[in-house]
């Protein structure tokens, strides 16, 4: 791909023609009212900064922008973040950024794309699929964040900021109704309780009355969700230099998830398969019950020359599900998995940062993390098909995983005075993991597997960056980052599969430029990147159970571009794209899945010479892009906002063998909102996936047949809102 390589190497220079046009006095776009772009504040370097001053590829959105584009939960972010593929499997959150992610589910398996809410790390995948009700903003930091967000952030970080309390009384509320008999409600209120105390309360609820599909075995709805989210914050400012913020949150999800046989697959024992892809045959009826709650205290104190921040947080997550992994109800072919997965975590972070605008700005700190997941709650793998193997009661698995982690980190940036800035950062981490895994065959009254082990992993990660302010509105940069994801243990028989899984590492090199043109009417940010990825923690499902293996080596490179343009005082355009080339350099032991034909069905696994060498990485589309056009105008008594958001994904492979593939797809979301001038009353008509595309939220092979979980179909509705 010579043209692609040339585009990558010249990526940082692509903005030069526009810069020259600006210097030559070329007129700006037709923005006759002079309405300019607002600065975007991000926290990618653990301090509030203008995104244009940060030498990192970042996609950032306010709550209003997300709402207009129909993004109301974290799984929808891939619509407006090129390079982000957000998988969702039976309630587990699995984001991939530029092909870096994991398909592993279960207790203690963390994602290399780290999720943070108000600075608190969410380790449990079951707690990662959260609604975006009443938030302030979302920021996606692409590439390894090896220093300031160093724990398990090989692929990047998703940062969600929720609304802080205000002393002035105010709030908003909305009530909506959509197809599939879906009811939504949101409420937010904030205000002062005393001269130095303020509080807020946010609540969001959604109930989907009709499922996207039907279980033809019993006539009941499937693929249906109900969600309740609550969050409250208390702000106390005992003095001018001290700020204490305590947050409490709770979220509960009830659903009926579905895994259907993937198109073209023949489930094991060749049972009946529904003709409508969203319908299934399943016995028993699947279910999902998940909850999470947490409490966090953030204390900021300004000493003058420096400031200290403490973030203390405890979280508990519960997950209870049952799903038939082939969703077939024929006698003798039922295969289901049920399990309860409790998860607890505690984290403590201290940050000491410089305040003054001296040539050297810095932040240093320490991080402590404790986690326990999956203890004393056996997972059942069973069904009528197990009777064929003399196991009518199935198999019980009881993993007990514990993690204890600590880190010291620091990063500093020195400005030479000529627009040149040099950044260097280090993070040293120590992590101890323990496992006690028991697999029981209740029909024989024995423990087939009983293994205990512990392992300590040590790592040094870093960041080096140089940036040059070419003009007041143009900055170019280069960086080198080391990303790291800790090693882990398999939930598997150590005589068959490796118990200890090595850490994965990613070295990322990036060139970029950040540019503002035409008196802040047009913003264009470009970056080219090169990844060297080793020891990828890759998942496979032989015999229906998840197994993790260390992949070989891979090389990824690509081009990322984001644009925001105030076209006129009424029209606003945002757009982005990512071109990605990903290949395994070496993966000799890659599992190769082979569909089994009639009469047996299912999938067999083998290896082959060369393994997956030369194949593309999973969830790594060659090209993805989006564009969102917003029209906003005020009339005498009304104001209106209309938005159309278009998203394109070139498609991706599910696994390293590149057999299962989700083809290319386009999504269109749209909304029209009418409101009074003071915002006291509003009426919004909205639609998502208006082209009604059927595409995969997740896709994978397994012994009893390849499975797929579909993303939601076309949805639309109306929302009545008010602000006060």
TrEMBL record:
PANTHER family: FERRICHROME IRON RECEPTOR-RELATED, TONB-DEPENDENT OUTER MEMBRANE RECEPTOR
Residue ranges that the Swiss-Prot or TrEMBL entry lists as coiled coil: none
Keywords: Cell outer membrane, Ion transport, Iron, Iron transport, Membrane, Receptor, Signal, TonB box, Transmembrane, Transmembrane beta strand, Transport
Keyword Transferase attached: no
Membrane topology recorded in Swiss-Prot or TrEMBL: Multi-pass membrane protein
Keyword Transcription regulation among record annotations: no
Protein name: TonB-dependent receptor
Compartment annotation: Cell outer membrane
Major localisation: membrane
Signal sequence extent: 1-21
InterPro entries per the UniProt record, alphabetical: Beta-barrel_TonB, Beta-barrel_TonB_sf, Plug_dom, TonB-dep_rcpt-like, TonB_rcpt_CS
């Amino acid at each position: 791909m010579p043209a692609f390589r040339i585009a990558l190497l010249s990526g940082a220079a692509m903005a030069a023609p526009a810069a020259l046009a600006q210097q030559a006095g070329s007129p700006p776009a037709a923005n006759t009212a002079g309405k300019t772009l607002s600065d975007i504040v991000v926290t990618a370097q653990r301090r509030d900064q203008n995104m244009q001053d940060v030498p990192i590829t970042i996609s950032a959105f306010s709550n209003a922008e997300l709402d207009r584009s129909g993004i109301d939960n974290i799984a929808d972010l891939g619509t407006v973040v090129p390079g982000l593929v957000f998988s969702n499997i039976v309630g587990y959150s699995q984001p991939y950024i530029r092909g870096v992610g994991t398909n592993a589910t279960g207790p203690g398996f963390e994602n290399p794309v780290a999720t943070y809410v108000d600075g608190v790390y969410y380790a449990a995948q079951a707690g990662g699929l959260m609604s975006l009700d009443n938030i302030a903003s979302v920021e996606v930091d692409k590439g390894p964040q090896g220093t300031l967000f160093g724990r398990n952030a090989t692929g990047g970080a998703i940062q969600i900021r929720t609304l802080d309390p205000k002393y002035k009384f105010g709030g908003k509320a909305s009530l909506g109704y959509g197809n599939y008999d879906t009811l939504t409600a949101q409420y937010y209120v904030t205000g002062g309780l005393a001269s130095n105390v303020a509080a807020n309360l946010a609540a969001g609820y959604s109930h989907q009355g009709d499922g996207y599909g039907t279980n033809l075995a019993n006539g009941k709805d499937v693929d249906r969700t109900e969600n309740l989210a609550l969050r409250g914050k208390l702000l106390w400012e005992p003095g001018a230099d001290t700020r204490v913020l305590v947050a409490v949150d709770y979220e509960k999800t009830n659903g009926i998830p579905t895994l259907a046989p993937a198109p073209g697959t023949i489930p094991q024992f060749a049972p009946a398969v529904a003709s409508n892809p969203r319908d299934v045959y399943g016995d028993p009826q699947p279910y999902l019950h998940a909850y999470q709650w947490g409490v966090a205290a953030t204390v900021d104190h300004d000493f003058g020359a420096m400031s200290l921040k403490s973030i203390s947080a405890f979280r508990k997550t519960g997950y209870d599900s049952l799903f038939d992994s082939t969703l077939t109800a024929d006698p003798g072919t039922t295969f289901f998995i049920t399990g309860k997965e409790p998860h607890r975590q505690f984290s403590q972070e201290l940050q000491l940062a410089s305040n003054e605008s001296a040539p050297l700005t810095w932040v240093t700190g320490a991080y402590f993390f404790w986690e326990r997941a999956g203890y004393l709650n056996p997972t059942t793998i069973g069904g009528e098909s197990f009777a064929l193997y003399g196991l009518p009661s199935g198999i019980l698995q009881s993993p007990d995983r514990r993690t204890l982690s600590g880190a010291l980190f620091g990063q500093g940036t020195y400005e030479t005075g000529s627009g040149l800035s040099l950044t260097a950062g280090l993070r040293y981490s120590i992590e101890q993991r323990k496992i006690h895994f028991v697999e029981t065959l209740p029909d024989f009254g024995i423990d087939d597997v009983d293994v205990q082990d512990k392992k300590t992993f040590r790592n040094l990660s870093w960041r080096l960056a140089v940036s040059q302010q070419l003009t007041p509105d143009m900055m170019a940069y280069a960086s080198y980052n080391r990303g790291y994801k800790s090693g882990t243990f398999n939930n598997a028989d150590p005589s068959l599969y490796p118990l200890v899984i090595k850490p994965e590492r990613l070295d990322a090199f990036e060139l970029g430029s950040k540019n503002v043109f035409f008196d802040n009417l047009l913003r264009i940010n470009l970056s080219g990147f090169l990844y060297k990825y080793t020891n990828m923690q890759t998942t496979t499902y032989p015999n229906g159970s998840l197994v993790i293996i260390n992949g070989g080596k891979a090389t990824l490179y690509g081009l990322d571009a984001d644009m925001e343009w105030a076209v006129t005082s009424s029209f606003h355009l945002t757009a982005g794209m990512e071109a990605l080339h990903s290949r395994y350099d070496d993966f000799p032991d890659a599992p190769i899945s082979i569909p089994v034909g009639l009469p047996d069905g299912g999938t067999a696994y083998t290896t082959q010479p060369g393994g997956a060498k030369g194949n593309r990485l999973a969830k790594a589309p060659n090209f993805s892009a989006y564009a969102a056009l917003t029209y906003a105008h005020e009339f005498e008594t009304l104001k209106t906002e209309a938005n159309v958001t278009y998203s394109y994904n070139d498609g991706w492979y599910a696994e390293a063998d590149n057999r299962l593939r989700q083809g290319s797809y386009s999504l269109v979301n749209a909304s029209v909102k009418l409101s009074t001038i003071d915002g006291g009353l509003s009426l919004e008509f909205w639609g998502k996936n208006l082209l009604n595309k059927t595409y995969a939220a997740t896709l994978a092979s397994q012994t009893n047949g390849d499975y797929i979980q579909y993303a939601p179909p076309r949805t639309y509705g109306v929302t009545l809102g008010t602000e006060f």
